[in-house]
Write a structure and sequence with these properties.
This protein is an alpha/beta fold and 292 residues long. It contains 10 helices and 12 strands.
Length: 292
């Protein structure tokens, strides 16, 4: 029942029409019995400050932030979590006295998806494909979790080098190196955890992967793709064909939402059954959108 005690939550974006967050978050609210509703709000970039002040004035319980607001919203916050500040992007706002504190749950969402696959990041040799916004969150997370090495391979070398420099500066150790995509040929022996953070292979361009060479995939013990449309990307297919384990982007999407939910409701836990239900709901939803 929606009443005077019901708290309002939501996701802001531009556009926000395809967001899966309302489906996921309302299911969490329902299953945990919290008195809240979660909606999607289309916010123009120039109204971002108004939005934050308005949501604070109206006592919103929490907000998710999606493209293109993840960086720009930081200037309107009371506080920003250390890792989110290093990444330079927030996707979750939690109410604090006088405003909101910003967090990035994409990074811990990815961490949880990788760990659920049985991989401990600490001490891992990692390859990151891409150097955009998503790769940035992944790179900082891998460094924070104690990866032994992070080779950042990107189409444009300068972005890879710049991201590696940022990671090394913030983590205080020279763990990351920026390289071109073709440099996979020169990577020294070893078995790697690879995280695919480019947009290559995303629906409707599903026949592509950033690297096609089978020799590359033989070096990967686990291939994680942050792309979730399709559920099985070409990068994952190639990893699997070479004998590696795969993790799809849907798990990261689910866990970033669950972690956001638990930041808003520290007293509540989203159980495994709820997570499994959400996975099914999102799969169904995505299958619908992938059909021609
Ligand atoms: P996101 O926020 O989703 O990470 P982004 O910041 O635009 O999006 O980054 C997209 C990433 O995909 C970049 O690493 C980009 O490579 P460049 O930095 O060279 O642009 C990568 N990418 C996009 N299209 C690509 C393609 N056709 N081949 C290889 N890499 C590609």
């Amino acid at each position: 029942m929606i009443g005077t005690k019901t708290r309002v939550y939501g996701v802001i974006g531009h556009p926000v029409g395809h967001s899966l967050s309302p489906l996921m978050q309302n299911h969490c609210l329902e299953r945990t019995g919290a008195d809240g509703i979660y909606a999607a709000f289309e916010v123009e970039p120039e109204r971002l400050g108004d939005m934050v002040r308005g949501a604070e004035a109206m006592g919103f319980g929490g907000i998710n932030v999606t493209v293109p607001h993840k960086q720009q919203v930081i200037q309107y916050l009371k506080e920003t979590d250390r890792i989110a500040a290093a990444i330079g992007a927030v996707n979750t706002l939690v109410p604090v006295p006088g405003g909101f504190k910003g967090y990035n749950t994409d990074a811990p969402g990815l961490k949880r998806a990788i760990e659920e696959a049985g991989v401990t990041i600490s001490g891992e040799m990692c390859i990151l494909l891409g150097a955009g916004g998503a790769a940035r969150a992944a790179a900082f997370m891998l460094a924070e979790e104690g990866a032994a090495r992070i080779l950042i391979l990107n189409r444009s070398l300068e972005k890879a080098v710049s991201l590696a420099e940022d990671v090394n500066r913030v983590s205080g150790r020279s763990v990351a190196e920026g390289l071109t995509l073709e440099s996979y040929r020169e990577i020294s022996e070893g078995s790697y955890l690879a995280v695919q953070c480019t947009s290559v292979g995303m629906h409707p361009h599903t026949g592509h992967a950033p690297i096609e060479d089978e020799a590359f995939y033989r070096r990967i013990h686990t291939g994680v793709d942050i792309v979730y449309t399709p559920a099985m990307t070409r990068f994952m297919q190639l990893t699997k064909a070479a004998g590696g384990r795969t993790v799809g982007g849907l798990d990261m999407l689910i866990y970033q939402g669950v972690i956001a939910y638990e930041l808003w409701h520290p007293e509540l836990k989203v159980d495994q059954e709820t997570i499994a239900q959400i996975r099914n709901m999102l799969r169904e939803q995505l299958e619908g959108t992938e059909r021609p």
